[in-house]
Structures are given as structure tokens and as C-alpha cells.
Automatic annotation (TrEMBL):
Listed cofactors: Zn(2+)
Location of the Succinylglutamate desuccinylase/Aspartoacylase catalytic domain: 106-292
Molecular function GO terms recorded: hydrolase activity, acting on carbon-nitrogen (but not peptide) bonds, in linear amides; hydrolase activity, acting on ester bonds; metal ion binding
Record CDD domains: M14_ASTE_ASPA-like (cd06252)
Top-level taxonomy: Bacteria, Pseudomonadati, Pseudomonadota, Alphaproteobacteria, Acetobacterales
Gene3D superfamilies in UniProt: Zn peptidases
Skewed-composition ranges (Low complexity): 8-24
Keyword Protein transport: no
Protein name: Peptidase M14
Keywords from the named record: Hydrolase, Metal-binding, Zinc
Length: 390
């Protein structure tokens, strides 16, 4: 059985009208009363997102159907309906939760969590925000995906239980490439083009534990770098960090950067658990981002630890990688200042009981920002990442 053609499931324009001109400045003003409309093109209906005020338009051939009106005022709770055929449900879909809260005119902020399913501080913070954010307290639009890669979130896994994909290595996606690529394509081609700010909330997951940080990439463009740092400082984690990431190209953060959106990621604890202190930081941080964007009134709130410490992981020389499979015994707890050339820990090899453990050394001086949490490691896994002050 074949699923219905994507174009056949498209809805019709609501016919609502644009909202009044905005009172709050925005680089990409959005009238949230403009409907999602559909144009006949190339033998298939294509959904066309319009912003009549700004003259913006994004065309997508995505088969993903949002069951909320991205241009309506008020608070909507619904799903993105992503095709996923099964043996017993040829027309099956997976429902990815989405919440849109909008009022008046102003910037659009996209907040996402559950890109990896075993990272919980972001998921719980966005659930809290979804329940508590009232339309009348904001000017602009907030789009929340609290459990973006829903199959992985439901399983409590980093990778997809459907196909083993890492969702954060699926961007910019492929509309007909299967669940993860199709959803990534929708986020990239439909949601990102209507955003001014985007933050994708991560933690260390099952494998890593990380000092709570707002994280941006090291960018070539000075103005975008400055805007990224300003938003990260506003989030207000203990650390604002610029990162040289392993395989950053296919990430959501890179996709947002490629579209000229001020974008952040984060690392907010880890170990496959919900860290209460990191959760407090995250809940405050997401509201701070909305204040920074001008969607919420007021100034960002500063944590009890004070302004964020600006740090960087500038290259892979700040990583310590395991050279072999084994059990990792770290020499220091997370958040310790360490010296290059000193022992980072011991790698115990069960295959060779007569040999001493392999001693690994730090290759950089700085803060032990990220540490291996799970005991078992494979060759090539990072066991420590050092950050230094900017
Ligand atoms: Zn993650």
C-alpha cells in the first residue's frame, strides 16, 4: 500500500489577514496573522510560507504536515505529521509535538530540544515553557519543538530507533529520505526561514557530562559571531562557549547559521539523567533568550554564579581521544582546571590483563569542560575536552 501523495493532504488557506504594523523593532519582522497558503505548482500543491509585511517566502516540497497554523495568534499545541510507513500501517505517520505561541508583531524564535533523545534538560524546560508561556506576555512568535526527534526521545536514546540515524547529522535533510531526513528538511526549509533566532538545546547524553554552557560555533563573520556571543551571554549559563565541533556541518546549528539566523546550541549536563541544577539554568535560559530577542519584555536574569565565563574549544587538540577500547578511569572530576602534559586518566584493557593500563595526558591547559560519563569507551571516543578562556 502506498501512502497518500503529500500534496493531496495539504490544507487550504485560512484567508486571515495581516496584523497591524509592529511597535517593536525586529530585523525580520513577522506578521503572525498571515496564513499558510498553498499554490499550485508543477502538478502538485506546494505549501508556501508567506510574510506579506517583509515580502519573505519559502517554498517547500516537504511531505511533513504541520497541524498548527504557524501564522495564527494565540497558543496552539499540535503535531508535525511525518510520514512513516510500517508493515501494519502503510499510511502511518509519526506525530512530532509542536507548540506555537504568538501575539502581535515581532521576531520569531525557534527553540528545539530532543534532537538527541537522551538529553533531558532541554526537553523538560521546553515542556515547562509550553505550559507557562502566555500569548499576552509576548510580542512576536515562539515555536517550540520539545521532543524534536520524537522516536529517539520516546526511546530515551541518542540515535533513532527507526534507522540508527543521529538526527543532528541529518541537516539540511531530504524531503523524501525517510523520517529523520524528511523532518530535518522541514525544519530547515519551513521553520528556519521564518526565524530570527534559534536555539537547539543539548546536554551530554548518556556518554558525556558537560559543564552547563550555551554553545556557539566559531564563525568567520565577525558580526554574526558577536550576535551569537551576545545571545549566549543572555542565556546565562555558567559558561558561554565557542566550539570547534566534530562533524559540525550537518547539524541544525550549522543549518541555522547557513541561513543567517542568530543560532545557539547548548550543553547542559549529561550522563543520561535530568540534572536539577542544569534544569534550573535551562529554564531560566530559554526565557532569557526570549527576553534577548525582544519577544518577552525585561532584561535577561543572571544566575547566582554571575555573568557567563566566555571560553572556547578552538580545535581538536583540546580533545583527548581513547586510542583503544577499554574502561575509562578519569584523573579529575568535571570542572577542574588541568595542565597540558599531565595525566588525564587511565584506559583499562580487559583483553590484556598482564599489561598496565594506557595512560593518557591532556594536550591543552584549561578547564575540564566535558568528561566521559559512561565507563566503557571505544577507540576514537573523546574522554575529555578542555576549554580555555577567550
Ligand atoms: Zn545532543
Amino acid at each position: 500500500m502506498e501512502p497518500p501523495a503529500p500534496c493531496a493532504s495539504a490544507g487550504l488557506p485560512s484567508g486571515s489577514t495581516a496584523a497591524a504594523p509592529a511597535a517593536r523593532p525586529s530585523s525580520r519582522r513577522v506578521s503572525i496573522a498571515v496564513p499558510l497558503s498553498y499554490l499550485f505548482s508543477g502538478g502538485c500543491y506546494r505549501r508556501v510560507a508567506k510574510n506579506f509585511n517583509a515580502g519573505e517566502r519559502s517554498v517547500t516540497n516537504s511531505p511533513v504536515v504541520p497541524e498548527v497554523d504557524l501564522w495564527a495568534s494565540g497558543r496552539q499545541v499540535g503535531h508535525l505529521r511525518v510520514p512513516q510507513s510500517r508493515d501494519d500501517s502503510g499510511w502511518g505517520t509519526i506525530q512530532v509535538p509542536i507548540v506555537v505561541v504568538a501575539n502581535g508583531t515581532g521576531p520569531t524564535v525557534l527553540l528545539t530540544a530532543g534532537n538527541h533523545g537522551d538529553e533531558y534538560e532541554g526537553q523538560v524546560s521546553l515542556l515547562d515553557l509550553a505550559r507557562s508561556l502566555r500569548p499576552e506576555e509576548l510580542q512576536g512568535r515562539v515555536i517550540l519543538l520539545p521532543a524534536m526527534h520524537y522516536p529517539a526521545c520516546a526511546a530515551g536514546k541518542r540515535l533513532s530507533p527507526l534507522d540508527g540515524r543521529d538526527f543532528n547529522r541529518c541537516f539540511p535533510g531530504d524531503p523524501f529520505g525517510g523520517f529523520a531526513l524528511s523532518l530535518a528538511h522541514f525544519v530547515d526549509s519551513v521553520l528556519l526561514p521564518i526565524c530570527d533566532y534559534q536555539m537547539d538545546l543539548h546536554s551530554g547524553g548518556t556518554g558525556m557530562d558537560i559543564v552547563p554552557s550555551a554553545v556557539g560555533h566559531i564563525l568567520d563573520h565577525p558580526e554574526m559571531q558577536a550576535r551569537t556571543l551576545a545571545m549566549a551571554d543572555a542565556f546565562g549559563a555558567p559558561i558561554t562557549l565557542l566550539l570547534k565541533e566534530v562533524n559540525a556541518g550537518p547539524t541544525l546549528l550549522a543549518a541555522a547559521e547557513n541561513r543567517g539566523i542568530v543560532a545557539l546550541s547548548s550543553e547542559l549536563g549529561g550522563g543520561g539523567r535530568l540534572n536539577p541544577a542544569a534544569l534550573t539554568i535551562t529554564k531560566r535560559g530559554v526565557r532569557n533568550v526570549l527576553r534577548h530577542a525582544g519577544v518577552l519584555e525585561g532584561l535577561p536574569e543572571v544566575g547566582e554564579y554571575g555573568p557567563s565565563r566566555r571560553m572556547t574549544v578552538p580545535d581538536l587538540a583540546h580533545y583527548v581521544f581513547a586510542p583503544a577500547d577499554g574502561i575509562w578511569e578519569a584523573a579529575h572530576p568535571l570542572n577542574t582546571t588541568v595542565q597540558a602534559g599531565t595525566p588525564a586518566g587511565l584506559l583499562h584493557r580487559i583483553e590484556d590483563p598482564g599489561a598496565p593500563p594506557i595512560e593518557l595526558a591532556y594536550k591543552a591547559t584549561g578547564l575540564l569542560w566535558c568528561a566521559r560519563f559512561a565507563g566503557r569507551v571505544k577507540a576514537g571516543d573523546p574522554v575529555a575536552v578542555i576549554a580555555r578562556d577567550m
